[in-house]
Amino acid sequence: MKIKLVIFDADKTLWDHYNISEFQDPIKIINENEIEDYKGRKLKVFPEVRNTLHELKDKGIILGLATWNFPDKTEKILKILNLYNYFDIIISRDFPYKFIMISEIYNELRKKGIKVKPEEIMFIDDRRSHFGNVWLYLGNINCIEMWKDIKNHKEILFLIE
Question: Which GO terms describe its molecular function (predicted)?
């Protein structure tokens, strides 16, 4: 079955930092893919993220983000890095329960009249530990462990068809 919705985790999936909620102003832009906060914490977007997000959008794929971070930090970092507009729905919560975040994305789509079956959803996260509850509560969602099941973001494009 064709994938209609791809949901990404953020930390250690889109970029190399493990917790963007730690970042504090002022944030300095080093280049389009790298930032640094005032304490010297750095974040770098992984190679091929922008191209992959762009190609997914071009193919008509709905993009979601489900991240365990403070919502204001997530929005700020995504906007600074010019990644915010790629995502149709962003759910950022201060708890780790990805199955709840994915449910929120699913419900937002339903409110907009967009119906997506679990098998038409791909969820990409760097931590396999989130997958059990996703499958238990949400059904047969295609869960992909970043860096284990796939080695780079470009490989996502081969999995959606």
Answer: acid phosphatase activity
The answer to whether 153 touches 48, Cβ cutoff 8 Å, is yes
pLDDT score recorded for residue 161: 76
Beta-sheet pairing, 42-44 with 34-36? antiparallel
CA separation for the pair 114, 106 (Å, rounded) = 9
CA atoms within 13 A on the CB side of 109: 25
What is the four-CA torsion angle of 106, 93, 157, 4, rounded to 10 degrees? 10
Which neighbouring-strand residues pair with 42?
36
Domains and CATH numbers, the chain: 5-159 (3.40.50.1000)
Rounded to two decimals, the pTM is 0.97
Give just the sign of the alpha carbon dihedral 159, 34, 94, 129. Answer: positive
The per-residue pLDDT for 41 is 97
Does residue 1 surpass a pLDDT of 70?
Answer: no
pLDDT digits (tens, 9 = 90+) for 93-136: 999 999 999 999 999 999 999 999 999 999 999 999 999 999 99
Q: What does the block give as tokens for 64?
A: 């979601």
